[in-house]
Protein 1
Amino acid sequence: MVDRPVLAQIGWLSRGLALVLGAILVRSAMYHVENSYAFLLRVESYEVLPPALALVVAGILPYLEMTIGVMLLFFPKTWTWAFGTCIVLFAGFAITQVITSARGLNINCGCFSPSDDNPIGIRSISIAAGCAVAALVGIVLTARRGQRCQASNEYRESTSEGLVAS
């Protein structure tokens, strides 16, 4: 028996979450790559990292975002890993914004453009935390669907072996 394609096995909600989170990450990464110096200034404005580490983060983060976004958009077999990485990224963004807000820094999030008029506050923290929760739901659905598909495949294999043996 031929297995259904991977997309059919994962489910509509997982696909929707992968598309939304993938699009968010790719859009954010495109801005960060196109405006690398402005992004470096944003990372430094959070005053959470020393300048040398901020340079490393500003250099690596956009390409990590792009890679994960592309994986979510085009490679369903990688969704478990990509959703897991999204949880870490978005939770890190939310925690960093909470720390920055608690310290009283009045800066813009800088997520999608240099002129981003989205000051760090409850709205930007909620967006980052909401994306982390969406990624958590995505990883749970993908893992559950994968377990069901694996059990279904094992059942098919065991019944087909029984038919061949008889």
Protein 2
Amino acid sequence: MRGLPRRSRGKIRLYVGTAAMNGENRRRKTRTVRIGGFAHVNAVDVGGDSPVVVQTMWKDRLRERDLEETARRIAALGDMGCRVLRFAVPDLNAAEILGRLAQTVSMPLVADVHFDHKIALRCMDFPVAKIRVNPGNIGDMKKVRAVLEKAADKGVPIRVGVNAGSLPRDVAEKVERGMSRALALVETAERELAVFDEFGFADVLVSMKASGIADTVSANRIFAERNDAPLHVGVTEAGPPIVGAVRSGAALASLLAEGVGDTVRVSLSDSAENEIIAAREICNAAAELAGVSGGPTDRLLRGGVKVISCPRCGRHGFDTHGFTSRWLARLYALDADLTVAVMGCEVNGPGEARHADIGITGAGNRVLIFRRGRAVLAVSAGEADAAFADALEAARIEASPDRPATGKT
């Protein structure tokens, strides 16, 4: 097994404010860890100069009878920009089902394992690409050694996932006595990393998540200055869609703009598809923030469709809410650099979205499709989706003629 580079033990500092806006970039270049890249599984590099990787987590218990549909949906998640997908694996039966799924899909799948090291060992008998496990909750060092030795032999990296709600008892007691949760998260993560150090295991990623924005930001900033392990960033238990997206955006856009974070998952009480959309938009927002200070944006920028839509008012004649809901996942799966506008009325729609490559608006039973502010087609409301699909495909071909069509419904 490869040795782990020594971690610096510099002075701990807490930060307040958005450092990226002040021209600061705290990123210590992390080492690169490869997820997958064996058998039929795609290789995804995390860390170093690699682009920030968007990932999500499967929301339901895996069932043998659903594997074909699950594989189809995984492919659709990949079209939307998901590069790594994590599954909860609570028992050996779940490990068997995940293993069979991993034999059929090319996206790297991650097994999230707690307490029973035998589950992690069984997952690695299949082309499962990564294990999320904490040495501290799977038993004695003999069990830890068994997991790390098999992971090294199989080329499977491991993520240490530390959450503020499940700190070791002695660290939790320090928090009760006044230690900040941010420092508690870092101390716990470094304690877990020391176990990997002891066994010389280098292919490790780290996450430190809290439900609080300040705790999440501070912990990851501190860790990034002291360590070179790639960071998986996210806010745990962020909340329902709007609340969770806002809280995650506030924390993660700031970190990513500073260069802190190598892979991101936005935790929402919502679909995996909406987690991916939120993560992509946060990466784009972070790139804009980094650009303000002249910082690097290459790791953050995401191509693809940009959707703008009006919030709707009493003047609306077109159901922007319903149309956007029907089309959003399909638009984000489109492999083309396009701006799409969904506007509520034909009075202001084309003019307000004249920079859009393609847009749609309407009034009553009349729907307008426009290109760069100019109406090109008028159809009935019943024909709107089909007409928009044709116009969107024409715009896609014009923008990216060499890319295959994706995002089919």
Protein 3
Amino acid sequence: MTYLLILAAGLGIGSGVPYIFSALKPAYIKGDYSAYYPAGKTNVVLYGTNTCPYCIHARAFLRGRNIAFIDRDVSASDENRRDFAQLGRKAVPVILVGERLLTGFNPDDLESALIKAGHVSKP
């Protein structure tokens, strides 16, 4: 019986710890990303691929809000891959909005970044 309790506790802790760490992770990294924005264009850039489902959702989210953005497919060109590598991220999508870098697609975090950058007004 003790073995089962220890096993259950271990499984519970093991399955819950990743959620705790992801909850403590900041939603974005703040920095100067102006070098990644074309002069006079938008300050929203999405690095992704055409096969990544989260990239597809992020694109649809931005298009649905009529946000002008630069779409950089990291599998399509060496330049896009180099720029993506310089950001130091390993997974796509990486979305730059103003002075924020977001990794992955979280609609609430992206909406917050767009509000902060002045692309949409607060609801």
